[in-house]
Design brief:
Number of strands of chain B: 8
Oligomer: heterodimer
Distance between the termini of chain A: 41 Å
Strand content of chain A: 5-15%
Number of helices of chain A: 17
Strand order of the largest sheet of chain A: 2-3-1-4-5-6
Order of helices and strands of chain A: EHEEHHHHEHEHEHHEHEEHHEHHEHHH
Distance between the termini of chain B: 77 Å
Number of strands of chain A: 11
Shape of chain B: rod-shaped
Structural class of chain A: alpha/beta
Number of helices of chain B: 15
Radius of gyration of chain A: 30 Å
Largest interface: A-B, 81 and 71 residues
Largest sheet of chain A: 6 strands, mixed
Helix content of chain A: 40-55%
Order of helices and strands of chain B: HHHHEHHHHEHHHEEEHEHEHEH
Shape of chain A: elongated
Chain lengths: 472, 463
């Protein structure tokens, strides 16, 4: 393989060039982004790698701010040049002459950086804020950039915004002979946005199309990998929560309340750990501004899972047991340890982990005699937990790394999203976890854990199929 | 995605390092985990698993986890050896006790049952367990349970890592079975030794006793039990030669029954257990060569993302300019007596221009292109307006080119104001950016209007 492909990102000031780099590199910490124009005044690079090999170098350039005066200066120079040499110069020669001139070092220093970088690149993305009207300065900008003689791919940013001037932009670009245009919203990139971008780029850069397709394939594989990892994290949380139980003396209301509080706290901690895992997986950091775009506050869920209002907002109706115990979200398990013989026998638990199974029955029976109760998390809470995590995952997968504003539609209270397990019935793996308290901690049962991982994987698969169904 | 040359021990270490890290609680910022090890792993290149193994090797050596694994392994085998030793002694004692002191005749089937019964029962249990995709290796579980009692700093992670790797590969039950069979092999070998010891030093009479069974049952049992020893060429005594209690037996008959008893123990006890030990050893050896880290699993994803980064910042390649010359408003050096002028700057086509409230005496212009800009500057210079209203679209970003032209135009009029349109859709943030930029060219905040009507009143001098 030869040297990496070099792509410059250019455009008028404040059209989201740095945001585009953030989204393409999936690095929310690349560069500096603000509403103020001219935030980026230097050229900054990022590399895209596949299997440790650099395939693509992206260059974030400063915004062009004085295209009209710059084109005037270039025209003046051309007139002088034509006067002395009597011939029309081609674009790159004119640009090079400008870069060597006094103007490039002073008034147009920022623009000179863009042009210098463009001359060194294999292609350039011209980022357009599709909400802006098409103005003379934009036309002049394109005129100047075209002089550099590198393939130019216009990229319409903010196309998801309510009203855009997309049609006017397309007309203007067509007039300049730029027909390959890509729509790419850096805040909420479409699922196939990256694919379209690289495919169009590949069609402009024929000799590099293999590189771009390799990159694309690797990114798609990574996205699949991330998605399945995220589902596994969620499935693990759910299995562990379903398996959780706590033995409390049932006669004393204080003990009961304390047990409930401890259990609630435990579940909240587990949920938080899962949230952190998901954030980290999708490279959102709790202390970053981008994370504020998620339905979280400081990387935490705003609403307490055990708050009755949260549950109400999610359309969760609490079972009678929980209501009787005045404990939001806790089913008080009066059955024999919540176990059915059927489940245990079906999994061969009686044969393999026979001792352990018997011990569970034994301890439940003991509870009957001593008057102790098993507390565990209510089905509806497990369902709500699943719904919330899946919502977060969906939000993470839809957000570009350039997002800076919170989307109200992701807020739980505003949106009565249907519960993940819509029939209210937990899937088989979770029902099995109910009878497997040792699944609540990884490695707690050690040899009895054999079924835990397969159950987690099966549950992740199940959630995935639910999500796929919902998309249809 | 795997590393063919790595050993099971290295993968075990990697899994243990991961788990021991996870045990210390989730780091809020996992990027700071161990930058040195991650750096080395990235530099090592190769597959994801290879990089993980390099990473784990670094951390394992530094934290002493690698030495701990060696120590743990040694102690675990020691535990198995001790259990096996106890089993050997127990088997020996059992055999001696079963035969007794020779003062009374030995019931041959009773003795055989006592020597092989429990072993065969447990063997069937193990077999059923294996068929149920679990294991019935109770002794293996005991051995394992004892091994988990080993106290080292990271013992928990070590055991968990071991189980996790082997469970994923379906090997755990073979390990447990191996321990079980080893212990039973030791016990049965001890029993054989005890049997031979007692037979060598004492004189026994072998009998067959029954209260309710007919004689033919004994012959049937002996016949059935002798099938396999017969194949193997061991001498099988005639069932009819067994005597009743109290009857003197010739030496050769007694020797023949003693041989039959030992042979049965060998064939039905030691041989199957020895074969199963071999089976388990080969299954485990075959299996651990194929154990791979689950690099595609969620437990490794985050580390893999860091060890094989998809993107990396390459830093600033061209630094920001120290300063770009800023435009400034200047007061004109001539008397401004011309009628007021309104200029629509870079307004989109949808904006109606001139504005409805503009009176006939005021001039109005609309500029966008280079030509229009240059032309208007010339006109303003000759017209010398007393008041100039510059109308801009607040939704656009104020850039340096805009500011340059506004400053140039503003410097040609007696007094100048800027009116921002579309302030609602622009948002407060964008408006303050405009205000700051205008302030930078020397326009006071009082000269910025957010209301078009107000601005026109000023222009027409009605306020």
């Amino acid at each position: 393989m030869s040297a990496p492909l070099k792509i410059s990102v250019a455009g008028h000031t404040n059209t989201g060039k740095t945001s585009l780099l953030r989204t393409l590199t999936r690095d929310a910490r690349f560069g500096d982004v603000s509403a103020r124009s001219g935030t980026t005044r230097h050229v900054e690079a990022a590399r895209l790698l596949v299997d440790g090999k650099v395939l693509l170098e992206l260059y974030d350039t400063p915004g062009i701010e004085e295209s009209i005066d710059l084109l005037a200066a270039l025209d003046d120079q051309a007139a002088e040049g034509a006067g002395s040499q009597g011939a029309r110069e081609d674009g790159p020669t004119r640009i090079n002459r400008f870069l060597a001139s006094e103007l490039a070092a002073h008034r147009f220093e920022q623009e000179a950086k863009v042009l210098r970088q463009l001359l060194r690149s294999d292609a350039a993305l011209y980022v357009i804020d599709a909400r802006d009207p098409v103005l003379a300065k934009h036309r002049d900008e394109l005129e100047i950039l075209r002089m550099c003689g590198v393939p130019l791919l216009p990229l319409l940013n903010f196309v998801s915004a309510g009203s855009t001037n997309e049609a006017a932009w397309r007309d203007m670009l067509a007039g300049l002979g730029l027909h390959a245009i890509v729509r790419f919203d850096t805040v909420t990139p479409a699922q196939d946005g990256e694919q379209l971008l690289y495919t169009k780029l590949a069609s402009l850069l024929d000799s590099h199309s293999q590189t771009l397709h390799d990159l694309l394939r690797s990114h798609q594989e990574d996205a699949r990998q991330r998605h399945s990892s995220a589902l596994q994290s969620i499935a693990t949380l759910l299995i562990e929560t379903a398996a959780l139980r706590m033995r409390v003396p049932a006669t004393d209301a204080d003990d009961l309340a304390r047990g409930i509080a401890r259990l609630n706290e435990d579940v909240k901690k587990r949920e938080q750990r899962c949230v952190e895992q998901l954030l980290s997986l999708y490279r959102f950091y709790p202390d970053d501004i981008e994370t504020a775009a998620l339905p979280l506050v400081d990387g935490r869920w705003e609403q307490d899972l055990f708050d009755p209002y949260t549950l109400q907002a999610m359309g969760v109706k609490l079972g009678g047991g929980a209501a009787a115990g005045a404990a939001a979200g806790l089913g008080i398990d009066l059955m024999v340890g919540g176990m059915t013989l059927g489940v245990a026998a079906a999994t061969g638990a009686l044969l393999g982990g026979g001792l352990q199974t018997l011990r569970h029955y034994g301890s439940s029976l003991l509870g009957k005699i001593t008057g102790e109760k098993n507390l565990r998390i209510d089905d509806t809470i497990v369902n709500a937990l699943a719904t919330r995590q899946v919502q977060l995952l969906t939000a993470l997968e839809q957000r570009g790394h350039a997002a800076q504003h919170k989307l109200a539609q992701h807020s739980l209270t505003d949106d009565q999203a249907p519960l993940l397990f819509s029939d209210g019935q937990l899937p088989g793996q979770l029902r099995e976890a109910r009878s497997r308290p040792e699944w609540a901690q990884p490695g707690a049962g050690l040899l009895g854990d054999a079924g835990r991982q397969p159950a987690i994987e099966a549950l992740a698969e199940h959630i995935n199929s639910l999500l796929a169904e919902r998309e249809k | 995605m795997d590393d063919a040359k790595a050993t099971f021990g290295e993968r075990w270490l990697a899994e243990a390092v991961r788990l021991s890290g996870a045990r210390t609680g989730p780091a809020t910022d996992s990027r700071t985990d161990n930058p040195v090890a991650e750096q080395k792993a990235r530099a090592a290149g190769g597959s994801a698993e290879h990089r993980i193994l390099v990473w784990a090797g670094q951390i394992g050596t530094a934290s002493g986890l690698a030495d701990e694994i060696v120590m743990w392994r040694r102690r675990a085998w020691l535990i198995v050896l001790i259990i096996a030793g106890l089993a050997l002694a127990g088997g020996f004692a059992t055999a001696v006790a079963v035969l007794g002191d020779g003062s009374r005749a030995v019931n041959i089937l009773w003795a055989l049952g006592a020597l092989l019964g429990l072993h065969l029962f447990m063997l069937v249990l193990w077999l059923l367990g294996m068929l149920a995709r679990s294991d019935g290796a109770l002794l293996g579980r005991l051995g394992f349970w004892l091994a988990t009692r080993i106290k080292t700093r990271h013992a928990g992670s070590l055991v968990q890592a071991f189980v996790a790797l082997n469970t994923r590969a379906g090997l755990t039950r073979w390990w447990l079975s191996l321990i079980s069979h080893l212990v039973w092999l030791a016990a049965l070998t001890g029993a054989l030794a005890g049997l031979l010891f007692a037979l060598a030093l004492r004189s026994y009479v072998f009998v067959w006793e029954t209260t309710i069974l007919p004689e033919s049952v004994f012959a049937q049992i002996v016949y059935l039990l002798s099938v396999v020893p017969d194949w193997l060429g061991l001498a099988v005594p005639d069932a009819s030669t067994i005597g009743d209690a109290g009857v003197m037996q010739p030496d050769n008959i007694r020797r023949a029954w003693a041989g039959w008893l030992s042979g049965a123990l060998l064939v039905y006890g030691i041989a199957p257990r020895a074969l199963l030990v071999l089976l388990c050893v080969s299954r485990v050896m075959w299996g651990i060569k194929r154990v791979r880290l689950n690099v595609k699993g969620s437990e490794w994803t985050m580390l893999v993302q860091r060890l094989i980064p998809q993107s990396e910042p390459a830093g600033v390649t061209d630094p920001a300019p120290a300063s770009v010359p800023a435009a400034l408003l200047r007061a004109p050096d001539y008397a401004t007596t011309g009628s007021p002028a309104a200029v629509g700057f870079e307004l989109s086509a949808s904006v109606v221009w001139p504005p409805a409230g503009l009176s006939a005496e005021s001039l109005s212009f609309r500029v966008d292109t280079r030509h229009e800009r240059q032309q208007l500057l010339g006109e303003l210079a000759s017209h010398k307006p007393a008041r100039l209203l510059l109308v801009c679209d607040a939704t656009l970003s104020p850039d340096r080119g805009t500011m340059h032209w506004l400053a140039a135009a503003g410097s040609l009029a007696g007094s100048v104001r800027v009116c921002l349109l579309n302030t609602e859709s622009a948002g407060q943030e964008r408006i303050s950016v405009w205000q700051q930029s205008l302030h930078d060219i020397g326009l006071p905040a009082s000269a910025i209007d957010l209301s078009a009507a107000h601005a026109l009143q000023w222009l027409e001098h009605k306020s």
